Amino acid sequence: MVAIxxxxxxxAQIESLCNWFRAxxxxxxxxxxxxxxxxxxIGDTSKIDTDLLEGLDIIESATxxxxxxxxxxxxxxxxxxxxxxxxxxxxxxxxxxxxxGPCSVENASQITEVARAxxxxxxxxxxxxxxxxxxxPYDFQGLRGEGIELLLEAKxxxxxxxxxxxxxxxxxxxxxxxxxxxxxxxxMQNFELLKELGHTNKPILLKRGLANTLKELLMSAEYIxxxxxxxxxxxxxxxRTFETYTRNTLDLAAVPMLKELSHLxxxxxxxxxxxxxxLVRPMxxxxxxxxxxxxxIEVHNDPANALCDGAQSxxxxxxxxxxxxxxxxxxxx
Length: 333
Ligand code: PEP
Ligand code: MN
Description:
Blueprint: E1 2-5, H1 11-23, E2 27-32, E3 37-42, H2 50-55, E4 59-63, E5 83-85, E6 89-91, E7 97-101, H3 108-120, E8 125-127, H4 145-158, E9 162-166, E10 180-183, H5 191-198, E11 204-207, H6 214-226, E12 232-236, H7 254-261, E13 266-268, H8 270-274, H9 277-289, E14 294-298, H10 316-332
Parallel strand pairs: 7-8, 7-14, 8-9, 9-10, 10-11, 11-12, 12-13, 13-14
Antiparallel strand pairs: 1-3, 1-4, 2-3, 5-6
Helix pairs in contact: 3-4, 3-10, 5-6, 9-10
Bound molecules: phosphoenolpyruvate and manganese (II) ion (MN).
């Protein structure tokens, strides 16, 4: 349930109203906007009478919401959330960010070369996998802690903030200097991991699972937010369908739908969504046109010899061209 308060209600009145709700066993989520204050009620609101609430002179309206996600819900927080990354980069609320880099960190020269190239090509954030969730245990598993060290060196050299994937909460201490922690598609419903990340204050890039609904994605965001960490970025990266020409099926309608349902920023990963380098450009442009707050693109200095996902990786020149075209689409909007 959400209660919209009348203009000019004092902090003391809000506090006493919240105490009244708490006494009824409900948690409250207060969102103070420039013009309006909204209280989101979390818990069993079935015994709360909306007419009684609307009868109070400090409440303008009270509405039941059926969505089980409260913290991520735009109804409780009408303004876009803006997530700050590494001091200089923002995402959401009109700020668009481009994340780029290799699928996996392979060695020092590869990651620094790609980092320099994507910076020159217009990236705001460097990506690179250190812990890799591979289908086969015989495939390259990533450089793990050493991969994070190499990313941090590339960050020092280029000034780009970094995003890299976590697979196990036990590794959290290795991520201390990482700017954005990614939760990959395969871990979207690893609820214990999400709970741990909720206790950090790091921006979390939460990717949609291979076969998950938007509601499930938002509920996973809710796990992180319920722990106190509101810095969640949602990522559409394609879902499993019957189609086989593309690696996944990019669900672009997810972008406006998620943005309608939630105040969190939404980005698109056209690389994993398509699995084919030549489809990355059109889907990146479409993502920008659909209102995404950013994109994440895999870029490799030598895609043909990449240890992971070479077929979907752009080379630095291709990336620079796509990044410039994406910015033109943003301007055209
Ligand atoms: C990745 O970004 O490296 C990755 C593994 O993506 P996803 O979890 O979307 O498959
Ligand atoms: Mn990849």
